[in-house]
What does this fold into?
Amino acid sequence: MKLKDKKIEILAVTHTKDADGFSAETLTPIAPPVWAYYRHLSGKEIYAAMTVQAVEEVQFVINWRKDITTRHVVRYGGVLYDITRVDDFQGYRGDLWVYCKLKG
It folds into this structure.
């Protein structure tokens, strides 16, 4: 059993248009903050087209929920992560493994 000792927020992404017609992204919590196990999976820098792009992948393990999808965003420690995969671990519905990458 993994120790769930970190608080994370799961946010829904909503796109709206501002007064000038530009798209604005709004993040709205879908539930109160939840306890999670946090694990840093990898981090790498890619040098392409004379720029540096950082890719950071993390994993959160939370109690099972049916309303989490890859359209949501996770906020942990003030940093936003896009959800790339949601794994319910063989359908047991005990824990939910949420794989993310740094939003950017």
User: Anything to note?
Assistant: Strands lie at 6-17, 23-29, 34-48, 51-63, 72-76, 79-87, 95-102. The chain has a mean pLDDT of 87. The domain at 6-102 is CATH 2.40.10.270 (Thrombin, subunit H).
